[in-house]
Amino acid sequence: MTEPSGRRERKKAATRQKIADTALRLFLERGYDAVGIRDVAAEADVAVTTVFSHFASKEALVFEQDEDFEQRLTRAVTGRAPHEPLIPALRREIQALVRHCTADSAAPIWRMIDASPDLREYEESMRLRHAESLATAIAADPELSQTTTACRTIARFVIDAYSLAREAADPEAAVDEIFRMIGAAWEVTSPSAGGR
Asked: Which of 6, 23, 51, 122 would bridge 61 by S-S if both were Cys, CB 3.0 to 4.6 A apart?
């Protein structure tokens, strides 16, 4: 996550992390459905209202890096060097996120998510939101001059690339393969290709 400045922000971030870490530990130990918000609050030694001031729902406790993930994707667009092509910048970011999410330590978390309809539904809504944020960032870049439909389509492809690669036997090779297709689709939509 972004490093908070100021003492108050650091304390707030530390409390948020403590709640998230406690929740994840309890979910993995006891099972997601067996743990309630009150259990998390008691174990983290905070009030239930404090949990809800940091997380909108129980599902959000599992996806505590959701906001950071979304910001990283939009920064891959907005923070790239002038005239740097879009698709390689997005590919690098997705590759880094896939590496993080396919680490051995992440496997129990993904098994828990896959086993829970509530968590799978939350993940799907999160992915759609990330795709919309990414599409907005792409559309706002005057160098790219693409239609709204093209921006939204490529953003969805990028978000799906993350999910597909994460589930692949060889995640790195999957990212490479998927991004060759995404790059080709992006080229077809460029104004010079007549794809508008």
From this structure: 23
